[in-house]
Give the backbone structure.
Amino acid sequence: MPASPPAAPGPQSVDRALDLLDAVAEAAGPVTAKALARRLGCGLSTVYALLGSLTARGHLTRSAAGYTLGYRLPVLHRAFQRQMRIDDGLHEVLLRVRRGAGAEAYFSTYRDGEIAVLDGTTAIHDTDAVFSVGQETTAHATAHGKVLLSALPRAARHQYLAVRGMRRLTPRTITSPDRFDLELRRVRRDGFAVEIEEARPGMACVAVPVRASAGGVGGPGRGRPVTAISAALPLDEFTRRRESLTEAVRRAAVEAEGLTLHGV
């Protein structure tokens, strides 16, 4: 009889492989298989099998000290940006903010019920970065989250917050929906958002919406996602340079008009 084909990996195996990848990504440096097995609460043999597959495909790299992210990850990141149709000029806009204002800059969007940071000037491996490229789960505590949520209809905003919650990250994090609504009213009035030690102690951030090229802020039902550019600085520097930083982000948002998410 012909040999049976190997069984497809079950959902649990896929979940564990992804959990392994996340655990390695969150580590400050190389992490051993034993440490990963303890963290995931599964057998060492299972972990070794999954690590072997992830390493063979380039998602992880093995060294004498343990496992780190592999060389496949930057390729996936570039593919992500291509599929999101982010204009090549956008990253240069963010770099100009960093060169001119000395602040790390980010591009964020709300689309299909999710908020994500799509591009930024911090290095992928920088574990001290205020924000990193990926899905945003604490938008209520960020300047870019305030800008994006302020552009949504009230019902859509409340639905997003009901799903994601308003977890307290620092003593200054806004966790009251009513107080948050007042904060977003100020954002719409002023045309920009500020957060001071709401997401992370000792850091502050300012964000400005990117206007749609046809005029007006893009948003759900208007043919384009809501987008924003933000910049973050340590609090003492932010206090001294708040006005100049805000102006730099405003200029960047104007430069980004028409550059972002073409064809979406």
Confidence is low (pLDDT under 50) at residues 4-8, 213-223. Residues 112 and 160 are 11 Å apart (CA to CA).
